[in-house]
Amino acid sequence: MALCLINSLIARHGFVPYDQLVRYKWWYRHGYMSSTGLCFDIGSATTQSIQEFERRQIIFANEKNILFEHLDYLSDHQLLNEFNVYCSQEGVAGNGALMRLAPVPLFFHRNPKLAVQYSGISGQITHGDQKAYDSCRYFGALIVATLQGETKDNLLSNRFYDNHKDWFNDEPLHPDVQQVVEGSFKRDGGYEDGIRGKGYIVSALEAALWAFWSDEDLFEKGALAAVNLGDDTDTTAAIYGGLAGAYYGYKNLPQKWVDSVYAKTFIICLCKWMTYEAEKLSDGSIQPEPHFSRQSSIDRRDSEAHSMVERTISEENSVTTHSFPPIIISTPAIVPSIQRTAIDPKGKLGLLYDAYRDRLIVQSDIIVKDQHLYVLANTMKCFVRKGNSHENLNLLQIIDITNELRLSVELNISPGLGIAKTINYTSSIDSYTRFLYYNYLDREESLPGNANDISRSILSPMPKTQATHVVIGVNWGIEVLAILQLSPDDASKIDNVLNQIRENLTNNNTNLDMTLDEKRILNRINHTAIYSNIYELTQITNVLDLCYKIVDVRANRTRHSPLTYTLCPIRFLYPEYSEKDVTYIALEPQIIEKIEMHLLSLYCQFKILKKLLEHKSFHSSDEYLRQQFLDAQNQFSKLEKIYTKEMKKYQDCIIDVRKGKVSSNAIIRELTDNHQNGLKEAINNVITRLNNLKEKGRSFHDRKVTPNEHHSYNDRHDTKIEYQSTKEKRNGNFKYPLDTSEKKFGRNSSSFVERDTYHESVLPYTDRPLKSHSTDKLLLDDGIGTVHVSHSKSSWSPRTYPKFSSLMPTGETINILLLGEIGVGKSTFINAFANYYSFDTLDSAQFHEPVVAISSSFVMTTRDLSVPPIRVRLGMTDCNEIHNNYDHSTTQECKSYLFHMHDGAKIRFIDTPGLGDIHGQTQDHLQIQNILSFINNLSHLNAVCFLLKPNFSRFSVYESCFQRLFTFLAKIFAKILFSVLHIRFPCDSILLMEFVYLNHS
Fold first, then answer.
1. Positive or negative CA dihedral for 464, 343, 450, 367?
2. What residues are paired with 200 via a beta bridge?
């Protein structure tokens, strides 16, 4: 495209956007100025703009009575003024506008204002976003400043825009571009610090400037740094080369590279010719275009103010203006087309395609005649790339799956076939992961270039189907991605051999010529996964055999498979398909990027979760681990249903956008739905829980565990269940304190185990600690149940009494004793408290299993008396909670549960056995004795909470029990808060309790 731009500047003696678009179209359709004779790699934004330009040409020819064949050579000033050259959709900010830009500021550098303005317009005709316009203006200004002799420090100064504001006609830059101007690219770590050579124009600009800033005044070093960023490597390097080439000059380019440039003599000739034409402008006869304001809408671009008039050296030297007859000549319509990666190898010319769902519609009776075959010369791409554990890599993006198809595969609208099976790769990616990619384009099959000839070439009847397009071109060749996991000890040696392989494949060497040591080092690769458009390549298990097989397949064209399909809208070929029936609207690249950004993490999390459920350590002989794993599987089953439902919603929405039924904004609204955030959180919680189980599985298998060891710490005065607020700073350390009922339980001192975590998770399960080899130290791993607890506003004053050292110790712990008869719901109250403080919203709670601090059970009935009651049980089996004896208390002994608040305070609930045992007052007195013994070991008590049933009216039955409690608390009775909870509605229970309380006050 840069060569197209140079030719336009030379041939038209100036800046003519219309002619630039014509030459871009020639490149796109006929390979004009291409080293291979065809357009092999083109961005979606440029494709869309060129297709829109063709559409407008056809309309313009009909409106102005112009022969269609004359349109590409249009030079009439008035007609040029009337043609709207801004062919881009709104919001398109791809990097292609920068990649080709250098000829414009080089040509006009003697007039900085004109150079900067034309730089912006040159990008804007195919990339219509403000950021693209301003990125091109800024980049053009940098090249102009370079040619005017400014130093590198001045070029990269944070004040570059301020120092050259008049070049920009005082028009401010977009804030995103201004951030780059102010030095966002100055990051020592480069890739590790977030520099990315992405398709987004601001990212590409930032990456190229980073390479220029850090190249140590060596063009070769900067170019390699730009390429090694990965992602859109060729574009990043091209942008770098545009600026660095102007700065260092032709003579300072690496000679070995210059010698290898294709058509070097021709390019040098063009550059000299461009320099000659540019010098002819230096006398000032060309004046800048009258200033105009850029508009963001296509409608406003249609105005005359936005038409660019050809600037010539003089009117006498202008290209001759043609007169056209005032008649409309019927001409064959040029066929628009789109590209798709050929993930399904069954495609062939004339086959139908459903672009809504990105699927071939296979027909058995397709007959095609008059097809063209073009054999291409050694067109290939090969690279080796390192992995990064800190980046969520989109593997489909690495192999350049076309945008729309990539989205379809990611959302399972289209099945992941062929090379797209890469999406199924589930192993972890880290700094020892390598990607070896090879793409070899051998030949192109195509149908004739206009609609009438194409439709005549397809002899088969056209059935009424879901088809939107017809395959009119097939590129054939080889595409393969090998994902390699290296051993840390061998990584550097293997990298050297992989680079040698890359060079051999790139140079079409049939003899790989490896030493025995090199072959041995390749055999030490830990794991190899191979994906390809050719099935036989995917059956290979090591990289050396793969290389030999590629050489073998490359030499035999009958073993090649389709690489890409060129698709024509079906309505251009078959009039029975109206535009209303088969409207197809492609999603804008930035919309696809937003969708992927939101959904890729969700997809990756779900994939990780499925992988964890296959982990062999979960197949343990330990009953406890097996039960926890079964619980996690149940959670996964529920989440899978929700996940599938969410994906179906996005699938339907995207298909509707492509059909034109809804706007793309509908997808953005779905993405910002909090419902999805809750799903992500829930999946993340189960992942965390399973990782914890995996660690436990290792510990149980690494040491001997006696049958009684799991419960050897179930001392009646010591609880093992903790709750911790997780609503702290993300990525911080989380402390899990073990509740040991204060200092008087000194045999198990309170300890803290800190672990790093990257999740704000709430695990809907309480865990038990593992016993260490020493009795005075407890090990607590990060599988512990965590509960979000809100801020506490309670404040308590320290006081000292006999038996209780203070009402509020320095640890800010609030101790609350729960009392009540059997079945009143003391344990249920603690479970309810845990859940209320675990989840911020009802939506969040619905996505999770309930938090079960204490195993519990209840009976569920229906109005149908013929249906027996159903007993529901929650939580793990607990020897302290016995549910199958309804005449006795479910809770066997006292146990405390500690909740940590955000303000540092802690609340401890003491759960107690229920009163009213079938054995009468004797058993009740034993229970109250146990309760008093337990609280006697506490340093203080803040509150006693009585839970009463609504029909509780026989207070005298328990009066002696409460009498003992009140006597025990006599000296601090007035300082303790007494609370009474009852069920559903006011009743006599409150009056009875109030009467007893007043009598003891």
1. negative
2. 94
Closest residue by Cα to residue 397 from 198, 563, 659: 198
Q: Which amino acid is at 640?
A: E
Show the CA angle centred on residue 775, arms to residues 773 and 779, nearest 5°: 60
Asked whether 894 and 716 are in contact (CB, 8 A), the reply is yes
Q: Check: CB of residue 751 under 8 Å from CB of residue 926.
A: no
962, 912 Cβ separation under 8 angstroms: no
Residue 28, C-beta contacts closer than 8 angstroms, at least 6 positions apart: 39, 42, 46, 47, 50
Q: Which residue has the higher pLDDT, 332 or 93?
A: 93
> b or e along 137-167 (b: 16 or more beta carbons within 10 Å of the residue's beta carbon)?
bbbbbbbbbbeeebeeeebbbeebbeebeeb
Tell me the pairing of strands 469-485 and 856-860: unpaired
> What is residue 691's three-state secondary structure?
helix
Give the integer Cα–Cα distance in Å for 996 and 628. 46
Reported as a single tens digit per residue, the pLDDT across 846-861 is 667 778 888 777 777 6
Neighbour count for residue 110 (Cβ, 10 Å): 17
The sign of the torsion formed by the CA atoms of 819, 821, 824, 828 equals: positive
Structure-token match 């097989």, residue found: 549
d(CA 676, CA 601): 11
Residue-wise pLDDT for 411-463, tens only, equals 899 999 999 999 888 788 888 999 999 999 988 888 876 656 666 666 566 66
Helix (H) or strand (E) holding 354: strand 352-354
Beta bridge partners of 733: 756
Q: Is 510 exposed, middle or buried (0-12, 13-18, 19+ CB in 10 A)?
A: exposed
Is there a contact between 440 and 380 (Cβ–Cβ < 8 Å)?
yes
The per-residue pLDDT for 959 is 67
Residue 377 pLDDT: 59
User: Position 856: which residue type?
Assistant: S
Number of H helices, E strands in the chain: 33, 20
pLDDT category, 725, cuts 50, 70, 90?
very low
Residue with tokens 């009424």: 464
Integer Cα distance of 848 and 625 in angstroms: 20
Q: How many CB atoms lie within 10 A of CB 325?
A: 9
**Residue pLDDT, tens place only, 457-481:** 665 666 667 888 989 889 999 999 9
Tokens of 811: 């640890």
Q: Give, in order, the Cα–Cα distances in Å from 650 to each of 110, 413, 646.
A: 52, 9, 7
Closest CA to 345 of 152, 125, 564: 564
Alpha carbons 720 and 771: distance in angstroms, whole number: 11
Say what the pTM is: 0.46
Each residue's pLDDT tens digit, 491-544: 999 999 999 999 888 888 878 778 888 889 998 999 999 999 999 999 998 898
Name the helix (H) or strand (E) containing 495.
helix 491-506
Contacts of 393 (CB under 8 A, 6+ apart): 387, 429
**Distance (Å, whole) CA 742 – CA 712:** 20
**What average pLDDT is seen over the chain?**
74
For 917-942, what is each residue's pLDDT tens digit?
666 677 777 788 888 878 877 778 88
Pick from 546, 450, 470: nearest CA to 501: 546
Consecutive H or E run containing 439: strand 433-446
Pick from 247, 191, 240: nearest CA to 217? 247
Residues listed for the chain: 1001
- Strand intervals (E) in 765-812: 770-771, 778-779
Name the band, by pLDDT with cuts 50, 70 and 90, for residue 334. Answer: low
Which residue is it, tokens 């305070």? 905
CA distances, 312 to each of 103, 115, 280, 290, 305 (Å): 17, 15, 11, 15, 19
The residue-averaged pLDDT of 389-403 equals 82
